[in-house]
Amino acid sequence: MSNEINKYTQDHQFASASPADDEIDLRELFSVIWKGKWLIIAITAVFAVGSVIFALMLPNTYKSEALLAPASEEQGGGLSALAGQFGGLASMAGINLAAGGGVDKTQLAIEVMRSRQFTSQFIQNHNILPDLMAGERWDMTTNMVVYDDEIYIPKTKSWVREVKAPFKPEPSMQEAYKEFSEVFKVNFSKDTGMVTISIEHLSPSIAQQWVTWLIEDINKVMKERDVAEAIRSSEFLNKQIALTNVADIRSILYKLIEEQAKTIMFAEVRDEYVFKTIDPALIPEKKVGPKRALICILGTFFGALCAIGIVFIRSFIQNVNVVNKA
Prior knowledge:
326 residues; alpha+beta; Bacterial polysaccharide co-polymerase-like; 2 domains; 4-stranded antiparallel beta sheet; two-stranded antiparallel ribbon; 8 strands; 63% helix; membrane; GNVR; transmembrane helix
C-alpha cells in the first residue's frame, strides 16, 4: 500500500513540475534572444540592406500578351459528310474517312509552339539569340537592349562567355529552348476556348514583337503542314484511282481529292489559319517584375531567422564550455 502511495505522489510531482520546466525553458529562450538583441538587429539590418540593394540591381521585366481564338475549320465538314455517305464503301476499299475527325488543331498548334523544333526554328529565323541569352538591361532612352559584355559583344557579333565543355561560347539550341520556355507562356481556356500567348522580356518592344512573330509563325507552320499533307494525299489518291475500275470507289476517291483541294485553297486564302487575333499584343507600359517589395520582405525575414539561429548556437556553445570547465 505504501508503494502505491509513493508512486502516486511521484507521478503528481512530475506532472506538476512539467509546466514549470516549460515556463523556465521559454524564459531562457527569451533571455537568450534579449541578450543577443543587438547582434540580431545588426544581422537583420545587413540582410535588409542587402536585399534592398539586390532588388534595385535587378532589371525591370515587361510582359506582352495576345488573345487568340481558334479559327473555324470549315474544310472539316466535307470529310464528315463523306464519312456518313460513303463510310461503308470506303471501309471496303481500306479507306478510313473519319481518321482525322477527332484531331484538335488548336491543341496540336499549342504543342507545336511548345516543341523544341518550333522554338529552335523561331530563334534562328528571327535571330533573337543575343536578346534571349545575353541581355542585361533595357535602355529606355534608346529603346535598345544592353548586352552583358562578358557573354556577347554586339559590335563584332561574337560570343565570349566562358563555359565548360561540352558547352560552347555560343549557346546551343537546347540552352536557348530552356531559356525561351521560361519567358514564353501559352494558355488555353477550356471554358471560353480562347488561347493566350505571352512573352516576358527586359524590353517591352521586344516582348511585343516576339508575340506577333509567334502568331505569324505558328499560323504559317500549321498551314504548310496541312498543305503538304493534302498534296501527298492527293498524289496517293490519284494513284489509287488509276489502279481501280470500281465506279463507287473511284467516286469516293474523287470526292477525297476534292476535299484535299478545298484544304489547299482554304490555306492559301487565309493568313490566320489556326488562330485569329482577338486582342493583339501591345508594347507594355508597366513592368511585371521584379517584385522588389516582396524580395526585401523575404530577405529581411530570412536575415532575422539566421540571426536568431546564430544567437542560439552561440549561447549553446557557451553553455557547453561552462559545463566542460566545471
